[in-house]
Amino acid sequence: MDQTAKPLTGTCRCGATAIEIAAEPIMTAACHCHGCQKMSSSAFSLSAMIPAEAFRVVAGEPVKGGLRGPQLDHYFCPHCMTWMFTRVSGFDAFVNVRPTMFDVPRWSRPFIETMTAEKLDWVELPVARSYAGFPPPEDYQGLMEAFAARG
């Protein structure tokens, strides 16, 4: 468990939009889907799953970009267009934040990787579990417990 003082504020690149979390991630992940590759201009995107009740926007008004429903909504700073967080329909218990918004390097290390069927062939990540798509719903509880137990 991370002992970083909470709440913790993270900002976009320009600092105009800020988010705050009051709890550690319940899991971290790398997504290799083509959409995340394009939105991040990289080989994958990183996510830290934060309990929804521990997340809030504290400055600025994020705008939707990328995908805009019905499955999920991506939120960006309207000024610098930094991709800051994602809300997934049907998974209201958590918000996927981009962990690089916070100055906690450990949160950027993915515990799992998803959508490896679309992964670039040169990418190798030090993860506990890999999924060709997304984990089946029945795996999430065990994954969150394993993530919490990792020390």
Give a brief description.
The chain is 11% helix and 34% strand. With 151 residues, it is mainly beta.
Give a written overview of the molecule.
- This protein has helices spanning 34-40, 140-149, and strands spanning 8-11, 18-21, 27-31, 45-51, 55-59, 63-68, 72-76, 83-88, 94-97, 112-114, 129-130.
- The chain has 151 residues and is mainly β.
- It has a single domain, classed as glutathione-dependent formaldehyde- activating enzyme (gfa).
- The strands form two sheets. An eight-stranded mixed beta sheet has the order 6-7-8-9-4-3-10-11. Strands 1-2-5 form a three-stranded antiparallel beta sheet, with no helix packed on it.
- The longest helix has 10 residues, at 140-149.
- The termini are close together.
- The model has no long low-confidence stretch (mean pLDDT 91).
